Amino acid sequence: MKIQRISTFVFIYFGTVLAFSPSVNAATFQTNFTQSLTGTDASKGDIWLNYISQDGTKFNNFSFINKVNILSNTPITNVQAGSTSTPGDKNNNTGAASTDRGDKASAPIPVSGMKNPTGTEIAAFVGNKNLNNIIDTEDTGSFKINLFFDKLIEKDKTGLDNLFFWERGMNSNLGIQAIDSTGKLMGEFLQLNHKDQNYAGYSIDTTEIDGAQQVGSWGVKLKQLGVTSLSGIQITTNAEYNGPDFKVIARNGPAYYQAPPSPPKKVPEPATAAALGLFAVGALRVVKKKFLVTA
User: What is the pTM of this model?
Assistant: First the structure.
């Protein structure tokens, strides 16, 4: 999304039959992250997810999206010579979902830019720990996309959320529904409402916008989706959802936190090690001579 605005329309699920959709009162969780850059560049660089905290429990046993099937996605149109997805005179805001990253952030592959993204490209950007790799949606576009996790997500007794979403701008909605391994819809369709978001503690400035925007978050339990397990989720949006720019991961099994490994000890360079060895031999000779003199 390019412009921060809050739609005053009544949001409805689109399809062959239009029906009002229940919205989610998303739970609160805290995002612990590390930013690769500082100052005004912090929102433009890599923002690595370390762990999530909820109800006094911290965990980083996550499942990530590893497969994406695009069922529909408003295509990019009217591509003129010099057209670009970045802000400026040649900016083209047509289409719907595309891949995006922070202005100075790394990414597994180049952003889709003025090309309609493939499922593989979307999976690469949403399926990693870099919170500054996202899916950007144009305000007037619509899509229906199936996202599959790398492991089956199952209900447990922890009371913690199972799915975690981040949305840039804190002003857009997103429709979600559980799917099985074949992409078949299960349970209930739910609408994640921007009014239920909580500030995630950081902002991002990506290639498709010209300034930093705060990031909000939603947490969702499988119970809210009406299922006890899922292989993935179908995400949907239309023009009335105001172009959600998002990231999603899942908790994999009972919550646990595994601290990252300690940095390896620095091993002296061969020349340095040799010099230290010569120094030790020389020092030993001096000690021996001193001993002989005083004996």
Answer: 0.82
